[in-house]
Design goal:
Among the domains are: 60 residues, no CATH class; 72 residues, Receptor-associated Protein; 103 residues, Up-down Bundle (Receptor-associated Protein), CATH 1.20.81. Helix content is 75%, strand content 5%. It has 17 helices and three strands. The protein has a three-stranded antiparallel beta sheet.
């Protein structure tokens, strides 16, 4: 009979490592689950001995339930999964668990009923692991491209407390709000981008269609060309003869900036500079405050410990300067300082937000306070996006109108000047 080496945790949370004889890996997992152990890794002893050196050097977490190679073999299409499948899967799972099905039965049903290939592949991969006795949170760890650490920890907390359906509902509301915020941002940028394309179309129309006819007209009329028209023609000639070089340099500069932005130093420098821009800086700060308050409230509400919730929240902060400041605040909180006081020492967060957080800490209602902060900053973000859209659209319209106006003035003045000289003759 095969022998399996396993690593697990008992009900008290202590680590357990031993061997077990069982007909198959699935039987081994079921025996360990019957003993009340939460399995983190199970491998046949002969295979485990061959790969022990590779696991020591390549393993990034002791909490991985199934090796990556096993996950790929169970579900080859899982490699193409992304974060886009997270919310639809959680919504479908919540609908079934609300109807009374267990999480395992819900995933099994989804793996056979869903028509969308990516979601079906995800559910199939999860069911393969669930059928071996793993809990849902442990199964999700094999799909890091879909589920982040915060999602997995929340699911694990819901399983431990028996409130998985409630946790799913709160998590879905949180992710839906994040998606709505991204939609608002894209909608706000759509109109200015459309104006930029319109302005580019006007320039191209002038260069390739209008300018050749104007030059023919001016050459036939003769006479001195006004200064405005000379500037316009010079700009057009420069764009036609050297525009390709400018375009290449612009593309090269954009790629170089993007690659520099991917580095730690570049990302930190650009994030710090963004905070100094009049409209962009307050918007970035508001988004960070909203992300912190909303994520932290969700984690604390579902039973995650304060230290763990703060660390998970830190990973959700995209802005490097704010993330570093929040990390420094976490160190002070772990040392015994209140969160509001620790955040105030960083100098990165609004005083009104810190005051409301301090009130919640003093009254013992920190989760409701965080929810209020998140709701208020959601409204502020909407107002800032509206103002940003109006200002940017106005600037783009003025730029287009000024160019078109200068174009019309240069053409008309040249025609009037040529006509006046023709009348003198």
């Amino acid at each position: 009979m095969p022998r399996f080496a396993y690593h697990a945790r008992d009900r008290a949370g202590a680590a357990v490592s031993a061997t077990l004889d069982a007909p198959s890996r699935r039987d081994a997992l079921r025996l360990l689950a019957a003993r009340g152990l939460q399995v983190t890794n199970v491998a046949e002893e002969a295979i485990a001995q061959k790969t022990s050196a590779g696991k020591k050097s390549g393993s990034t977490s002791a909490s991985s339930s199934v090796p990556r190679a096993a996950g790929s073999a169970l579900n080859p299409s899982a490699a193409g999964l992304t974060r886009k499948q997270r919310l639809p899967f959680l919504q479908a799972l919540h609908d079934l668990t609300t109807s009374g099905l267990s999480a395992g039965e819900s995933v099994r049903l989804l793996s056979t009923r869903l028509q969308e290939p990516a979601l079906r592949a995800l559910c199939t991969g999860l069911w393969n692991r669930l059928s071996e006795g793993q809990p849902l949170s442990s199964s999700m760890q094999d799909f890091p491209a879909v589920f982040d650490s915060s999602t997995i920890s929340l699911i694990q907390a819901g399983e431990a407390t028996g409130s998985l359906n409630e946790v799913l509902g709160r998590l879905i509301a949180h992710l839906t709000e994040q998606r709505e915020l991204q939609r608002q941002l894209l909608t706000a940028l759509a109109y200015p981008v459309l104006l930029m394309f319109a302005a580019g179309g006007v320039v191209l129309f002038f260069l390739f269609f209008l300018l050749p006819r104007l030059q023919t007209l001016f050459d036939s009329l003769g006479g001195k060309i006004p200064t405005s028209t000379q500037i316009l023609i010079a700009f057009a000639h420069f764009a036609l003869h050297w525009g390709w070089l400018v375009l290449i340099l612009a593309v090269f500069g954009a790629i170089s900036f993007w690659r520099w932005r991917k580095t730690e130093a570049g990302c930190t420098a650009t994030d710090a500079f963004a905070l100094k821009i009049p409209l962009l800086g307050p918007f970035v700060t508001t988004r960070t405050v909203h992300a912190i308050s909303h994520t932290l409230a969700l984690l604390l509400e579902n039973g995650i410990t304060t230290a763990e919730a703060l660390r998970m929240t830190e990973r959700q902060i995209l802005h490097r300067v704010h993330r570093r400041a929040f990390g420094q605040a976490i160190d002070r909180v772990i040392e015994g300082e209140s969160l509001s006081l620790a955040l105030s020492r960083t100098g990165c967060f609004p005083e009104l937000m810190l005051d409301r957080l301090a009130i919640g800490e003093n009254t013992g209602n920190i989760v409701p306070s965080l929810k209020d902060i998140a709701r208020n900053h959601q409204k502020i973000i909407s107002h800032q996006l509206d103002a940003f859209t109006r200002i940017l659209a106005t600037v783009m319209l003025l730029t287009v109108f000024m160019f078109v106006g200068f174009l019309a003035f240069a053409i008309v003045s040249a025609i009037f000047n040529a006509s006046a000289q023709f009348n003198k003759m």
